[in-house]
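Lab notes, practical 5.
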Amino acid sequence: MRVVGAALGATMMLAGLVALPTAASAGTVTVNDTYYGGTNFYNDPGDIIGSATFDIQSAVFERVGAGGNTLQVTINTNYAGAPESGASLGTGYGALFLTPGYNVWSPQGPGPGYHTDTYQAGDWAYAFEMPFNPGAGNTTGSADLYSTSDGVIDMSNVGGNYSGGNFRNNQAVRFIANGNAVSLGTGTWSVGVNQLVFSINDNHLLGDNFAFSWAMTCANDVIQGNVTGVPEPASWALMIGGFGLAGAMIRRRKVAATA
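Output from the prediction step:
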């Protein structure tokens, strides 16, 4: 099973003090990529097919904005900025798939790689799309969250027009909404250096516990797993406030002791 690590730092209550996480990790949950999946006949079992361009390292989840109504997902991958160039000809960005609930991801085959796991109908409840290839210089744009029942889920190698190319079979990679699809939440996507960032204004529709999947359309690397307990911004504010109050109490005690 993929290791899901809450990057919250050590949190403990001892003698009325709350230990805070480091600034770099506060309020996030990180899932590292150990998933293979998808009946990969080319280097099975193995994480990446082809060049390191396709490598996905991790996904980071956090709640941001007023009331934590926006779920922000950062995919750390060499593939950011790569569609339709170099070793990536015929490939593009896939959709981010999500299913709310606690521990709802149940892949086929043995872990940790689950290298025989393939898409099964009903695996993913929602999809957040971005363009197959935004084009040179287009590094951000808008997108919508849809129920997957309002469109079609495409399998890996979507858009592939190259001869002899290898790809991971039978992974959900793209979502095409139908004409009557209703947006369940707006948001944005952005492409940075080795990062894709999805900001989904879901108003807590997805909750703080869910399963997810993301891949490029050839699925030469895929990241999937369960996410548990994405912290709300309010909880961190309370934590910081408690820490400040505890510090003030200690200072008062020191002043009283020296008076």
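Observations recorded by the TA: Residues 233-258 form the longest helix (26 residues). Confidence is low (pLDDT under 50) at residues 1-25.
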